[in-house]
């Protein structure tokens, strides 16, 4: 700790940070542009100038840039010094000379850092009366809008896009006062993290294009803290609504999970909530009623549920609450996990490894702090994009450390560090069936068949000392690779092993576990991260239930009358023929879902469920972190949260297990009480009766407008605003205006800080955790007993070497960030970026052997059913394998790996 | 005591003064041009809608009686998709006019808006939009703002240089 | 006087009084408008005279609302008290030599007694409303009226000494030689001011004081119950005006070219106009100023007036 003196007052601050961070952490408002907590300092904008004094007697002082100045003991500075503030005002005056002053038509207006800083410096009068420079804009794809005139040349965009996120297709062009930030030519920005530019840009050069299509100012939206449903990482998001439709997703800072950023699937994959395919009305097949009310539907179902034998099929994309209530409604022995065979196996294995093994699964920010990474069979940028971003940060750790030691700079001195490290990367090994977007930062990228990758993993574990059956038949190249990986991991201080569902291969999970355990046995704080297919796969697995196959058997054997399916499209869980067969034999199929899908087509009763924006619930991410998401707006019409529908069914059928359950808190309390593994999830967020100063936490900013006009076209008498009985959030702008608990911050705003930069005010220290801790509760901790080798549940057997089968192709999954996920693809921008028609990826040798070329059609028989794909050639793919983009619409295959017969 | 009597006397003398009342329905009061009455959306000199849907009027409105949705035409010009004022809530404070950066929303000297049915006091855009520039003739927001719209490309607004050729290396 | 004549007088007095009170509503609004350079009611009927009818109809057809928190019996009873007490006071007023309801030998005392009764309506109304503004208004009303009653009584004693009678008819007849306004000029002013305070008219409308107390003691009243307070106030004005005329301006006395009753009415209306002019021109004093003015100035002054009058009477 160091003592610094700011404007005559002494403060105790942490050493090693810069002055700007120190000032902001102390709550002192100091303007800045080019500095960003995640990007570090470059001292380009000259906006954060303060006066520095030599000692007590020095009255003259000198101007310094606070972002470039490390905190030193007994430093004397002045923020309010007249010369310093005049300097800051002048700097912003110069920055603004060419600014078009078009805030009225700018999407950033109202959440604009430039506006905030202009007001903060007091620059209120424009002295420049000459002509303004202008630029042509570029088309940057469906996600971002470009308006270069507004640029103030802070360079944050390229520093994020190129340096931080590793994008290749954006740069700064031209010279002197003509610098231009964009692509070399018009076209879609390719990075998976391009959307963050909208938040990184301090003004309106890059703005959210999907928001523009239904533009709403920040102050006009109803917000709720939510959790991204796009993948298993559980990034924290803020969802904003206006006029009954979801308008925007923005980052909700979580110092442990996603930090300041989101991937584009998470940010832009929300519009399915507004989709015309939404199920909004109750439907009962062959019903004679003109309109079916909830009561009609419940009465109809009462007979079905009390008379016959009922099973329930849960869903990995439904909340824990919904799954739990369904489980309690139908009974533990009638509850089936709605996952594919493979996913179920992987999830079971992953949970077992994480629970019984001694190695900890890291949060995403912990992963970003790793200094050596081994990825076994995972195309992170497509299966868990934000973890990929974390790996990008992790590979910078070692060279950064070297640079700090060699050049005596600090980590936040971004330009100096990057200059010193050049393009060196830390150890990172990526083994996958085909090239991934992260291969460029890998020390070695190796492409092989799933089982072979697992074998390399086991071999590494063996070198590191794991009791693994000796693997002998590795090639020389593989042996070298194994040795290199083992050396790098042993040398690292915080090695990270990543595996997951990417190959659909259990052996790779076992190998990853062995490697991490072997490192642990060496006494290293190794980390083991598994990706999961969906947002609540791990939660559902922890809840526990029977396999989906056995549900099929039960129905086909005629043991079941009614099947209740929770937020699940069974056609994505089984292949089309099995699903058709299964659904044909269901006497009654009750589906609760929000988007019309193939299963809905077959349902006899359709109950409209709320999407994440209309529901409260809890998800468990791949880390085992339970996180709560909140309803953004009151659902319209018949739409209700799934768990509420199921509770009502429980009430009408007199279900003993669901007695006295009515609100969210009742359900979470019951989960925590009845399932010890979920202990504590009832305290993830404050309960519904939580009040600050007697008030709820408002979902709407205090400047929310139009309350007495937005519904006036329907009826001039305003309706009573909806009441939220489930949570401590209110649907209106009335409530406590101060800082809410960190787990339920609906939006980031602070007086004078309208933009997203107000996050500074909610953090303990800049870039650290939120004031009362980062939200979420880790449910999985490593098994502390297994310290010695003896207690580690080693996996000793490596799989057999992959041998291509004549006349067959091993179909392996290929994932796409845009398109593979079920819901986000119903968003126009995501659909535009998706690869389109299903294809099959072949090795050129295989293609030659089967006499097909690129774009040809290839027919394969899977389980005796024929499928036709368009051929794509990929030389990196191992022979005898075929990459299939599972999850893509219209693919028909739900489950790979699988053998396809030609 | 004397002042009391004096004021009584002075008040009494008012008996012989001229009455100030306008006999309203028969005789209209002359309203000053800045009278804050009925709210209208005006047009710019080219006849285009002045409103760009910036939401500042709605934010300024103390009774929250303005709601709108901004949208954009194919050339990038912003305009309100709908614009609704609930006059049964409006207090004619004029904050919306003050907040408007484009002189679009203006309060006019007209107060005769009474209705028997409250619902009729909800004015939509077609009821608000007038074919006039209102109090501020000659102003055209897009002539000074940097956005490109149909008929005005980048660099064609007032005090703007032609767009930068980023391939040029000239100083 | 025959019984028929008597009933005719009672009926006539009631009819004229109630209509006068109603008409005063219109008259006041027109006069206030005149003094404020406006027109006042001018739409319903000639000169807007039918506004009285419209107001009455409105009051009659308004919902007869008693707040759920009110003391119901007292709440209904209170407005009746004010009307009854004022009407009873009129029984002793001699409108003309033969036109009076009761030729009562302690008529003046009866008048004082009845005007004291008026306090009850305010106190009960304010109390029964169970509303803090109403209660504050009632408390102010009670203290104001009780205080001003004291020297109202004392101020008229000068007249009693001069005329030697409490009978109002005899007091008027005693003025044939000269109206008491001249010898009793001080008494007249004290009586007038106390009268204004008794009727809690502006500027002494402190129990109502709408800028401070909503509507004071009758905040919770509406419909015809409010109407009774309203009518009571205008009848109160008429009563005080009539009393002033009777005690100091020779009642019905006047040159013979007009019948006595017309003289009485004319004089009374002159004072009613004065009441309205006061309303048009006076600001309301503060409550403590009002009490101070009453007890520290008017009360001693009325005693002095009584003393001097008695002394002169003795000496003559």
Automatic annotation (TrEMBL), chain A:
Q: Is Glycoprotein one of the keywords UniProt gives this record?
A: no
Q: Name one GO cellular component term.
A: membrane
Where do the 2Fe-2S ferredoxin-type domain residues begin and end? 1-83
Q: Which SUPFAM superfamilies match?
A: 2Fe-2S ferredoxin-like (SSF54292), 4Fe-4S ferredoxins (SSF54862), ADC-like (SSF50692), Formate dehydrogenase/DMSO reductase, domains 1-3 (SSF53706)
Q: Give the catalysed reaction(s), semicolon-separated.
A: a quinone + NADH + 5 H(+)(in) = a quinol + NAD(+) + 4 H(+)(out)
**What cofactor does this chain's UniProt record say it requires?**
[4Fe-4S] cluster; [2Fe-2S] cluster
Q: Which InterPro entries match?
A: 2Fe-2S_ferredoxin-like_sf, 2Fe-2S_ferredoxin-type, Asp_de-COase-like_dom_sf, Mopterin_OxRdtase, Mopterin_OxRdtase_4Fe-4S_dom, NADH_UbQ_OxRdtase_75kDa_su_CS, NADH_UbQ_OxRdtase_ferredoxin, NADH_UbQ_OxRdtase_Gsu
The Gene Ontology terms for molecular function here are: 2 iron, 2 sulfur cluster binding; 4 iron, 4 sulfur cluster binding; metal ion binding; NADH dehydrogenase (ubiquinone) activity; NADH dehydrogenase activity; quinone binding
Alphabetically ordered keywords of this record: 2Fe-2S, 4Fe-4S, Iron, Iron-sulfur, Metal-binding, NAD, Oxidoreductase, Quinone, Translocase, Ubiquinone
GO biological process annotations for this chain's record?
A: ATP synthesis coupled electron transport
- Boundaries of every 4Fe-4S His(Cys)3-ligated-type domain copy: 83-122
Which Gene3D superfamilies does the UniProt record give? 3.10.20.740, 3.30.200.210, 3.40.50.740
| Sequence similarity | Belongs to the complex I 75 kDa subunit family.
Share what the entry says about its subunit structure, partners included: Composed of 13 different subunits. Subunits NuoCD, E, F, and G constitute the peripheral sector of the complex.
Protein name as it appears in the record:
NADH-quinone oxidoreductase subunit G
Q: Organism, per UniProt?
A: Chitinophaga agrisoli
